[in-house]
């Protein structure tokens, strides 16, 4: 009773949530910060639609898609610094995605495990998650450490390793990553996990479909599909 286990005796899914564009509704802040970074180099601003069509990681490759060439090392440093300065000036005004707080609380109340892994810098992530009052819903919260131009996969490996050290019953096979970017699916595959991608964030539905994993339009649907994937 109350431990979330199914009648079959199988352990339910462990969910690894993404933050930006998934739990946090920050599309406006992302676009404004991206355009501020572009302005540093005299580039024209972009729309949310164009951003969602072209977004990819590593971020320098995304900029290549937008401006037709890779930024130089010097340009990258300028743009990256401008983006982060402008984004974090706006992040506190962003709210959680509709229904996110309720989903997280219900899952915790049911005794089901979930964690948070983000490519946002760890030193920024932890305080903003705390300010939204949801830290206690996660068994672990990890942000990015190191450079901002890498992939999420290496961070996912460390995240799952730490989770398994605390709870050996957490396995890649019964872990589902819920995110808004193709990179979330790539990161899931790196640890043998499954992924569900949400259309409300950084990618268009067409871009997400290329990942070959389920694509959904709400976080509630994402949770339902995640449990089905490991059922």
Automatic annotation (TrEMBL):
It comes from Streptomyces violascens. This is Phosphatase. Pfam families: HAD (PF12710). InterPro entries: HAD-like_hydrolase_sf (IPR050155), HAD-like_sf (IPR036412), HAD_sf (IPR023214), PGP-like_dom2 (IPR023198). Gene3D superfamilies: HAD superfamily/HAD-like (3.40.50.1000), Putative phosphatase, domain 2 (1.10.150.240). It comes from the Bacteria.
